[in-house]
Amino acid sequence: MEHEHAEKCSLILQEGKCNCYRSEEEELFESKQAPFQPATKDGPADVKAHPDEAGWAAIREHVARKLRGTRMNDQNLSADLNYSPIDLDEIRVLELQRGDHGDPLNGSLHVANIDFAYPEVKDYKRKTNHAISLAEGGPVWYTALSYTWGDPIFDAQFHFANGTSIQITSSLASALTHLRSQTDSIFLWIDQICINQEDVQEKQKQIPLMGLIYSHATSTVIWLGDERGDDPQLAFDTLQTVHERLIWFDGEIRSEDFERLRFPAPAASEWVEVSRMFSRPWFERLWVVQEAVLSKNLYVKCGKAVVAWEDFALWSSTAESCGIGAFLADGAPATKNQSGLSTMNELSTLRMYLQTQETPSSLLEALVTTRYANASDVSVRDVFLEASIAEFPMEIFRLLSCVDHDRPVSPSWVPDWTLPRATESLGYLTRSWSLYSACGPMFDSATGKAYDTEYALEDSNTVLVIPGIVVDTIAAVGEPLDEEPFMFISDDNIRANPTWLSYLMMAKAVTSYSTGETVWDAFWKTLAAGKDGSSHGTTPQEYSEVLSLIVDKCMDEEQHIPGQPYTARRQKGFFTLKSLTSRKPKQTLDDMRKAFRSAMHCRAFAITRKGHFCLVPRRTKVNDAIVVLQGGHVPFVVRGQKMVVTKGFELIGETYVHGIMKGEAFDRNSPRLEKIRLI
Questions:
Q1: Where is the Heterokaryon incompatibility domain (predicted)?
Q2: Tens digit of each residue's pLDDT (9 = 90 or more) over 322-362
Q3: DSSP helix/strand/coil, 528
Q4: Reported pTM
Q5: Residue from 552, 656, 663, 515 nearest 595 by CA
Q6: How far is the CA of 305 from the CAs of 174, 223, 268, 302, in angstroms?
């Protein structure tokens, strides 16, 4: 089967062998992944990836059992239907027919069973890398596609073998054009085609299968988009160069180090291409991307350029750890807020963890990463409601942490999965349990067991009732922060976000803090939501002096907020803005900026009636209430009056409230506990 080579591939340039895929360990070890090829009917070229004798026995047993208990499904499209009905354990796989680059897109759909898995034999469990055809009694190899839909404009056509066609988005059409082979049919799983988008009930059945679909795929390709005037191969090459030259380097580089390291100049086109690469929509997700963390053989493709995930992850890790990420965010031309590199490294860490665990993916993780259109349709909202209820009780608080709405929805506690999340969640990832415990201890100290989650569903499952306490109400709230607090820092100047400056004025008006600590300490810790830049640890004390210097320069005065420090070395002129370019202070500044971005982006600074500082959802208003729920490790902002018309609260979203994040306001045995009704 022919491979689509990048325009600058050495083979195309007649300079040697193909280098579209270059493993970092190729010279020392056998490559862990073969060059990318979409799945064909014959399966992977590596015979080790095919079932052995024991595997075939397991497949035959599975097929026989399924045929005894279920009907035989039509394996191809019927003459008059685009979509044949499928069972709860079945998916459709697209066969994309061969063709040249400009040919129409043609293919057919095949039904396959997805719940087969190889059994464990003598402490060894073979990885499942295919679906099963019940009709043919063998594997259905397929490549899963991870991509962004783009604008919901269906302006391209896909033609089926029965003479019918459907409309697809141009972004998908571009991906199919680049993936298609000139010599063989390839087999793909793509949500936009393999799921009947007109059938709400089918969507509901397919959502729980997403984990199996990606974990059982023969391979998965992340499609970042076509070239659109960019040079993605140059971006890949630049990242590889950075990694190769810094592989044994410990520490961060500065722009003045570029010439010594033979890097492109800071304003060179190479950095523009890297910036554009990480600014692509696929990287805008701030959540666990299920396709990336579950797939075994994973590749990243942008136009004609393609690279194995393991290599791309290595390059990205080196780029961030040596300070290239901060350089891209601060200085590279034609850039905007750079979250792509950080997102990439978060995904890489999670993928590494999950690849070593036998932890199945939850339905919630599938919902987090699967965004279907037309959510305003009541029937689709019903799908989200039923899928959310399926996560109770184990995932109930992670589910509530997914609520991040720009507009009111009903029920308010059901996330709208069709809209991308604007904030980075405080309580979704389990690592937050070590940072926050607003409800007090999560485990019974006597038995060591986790406390049970109490809840009830009322009014046709549209009202969620959880014991909790209304701990405070919002007295003042600023505008949401849509950019970084301080966007530019030079040796003698700072350009600060006006919204952030207004937060400083709010804090300045407070004379004391309810916990007994200084107003300043409560303020700067709130801005980072009590976390460091990695979101794994608490805010380090080093942030205080650096931020105090920045605040004074922004406001052109000293000791602006009560308790704000003015250290001896600052008084003597030894710690200035220029100091922030030296290694240790710069490292603190970069980590602090990362912590602030994570905590504050699209949230607002607020003060409660009891004097607590908070970071609240962007829809928060004065008089909204703050509740701590039994079993919930982060508080939530809610709206409504309990005993009036609403008879419940609208959930606005999760919040950080400085001074109650360690159970200070909650006692699970308190008579103050009441039924918090979320409507």
A1: 142-291
A2: 888 777 765 444 334 346 787 788 778 777 766 665 555 55
A3: coil
A4: 0.61
A5: 656
A6: 14, 10, 20, 5
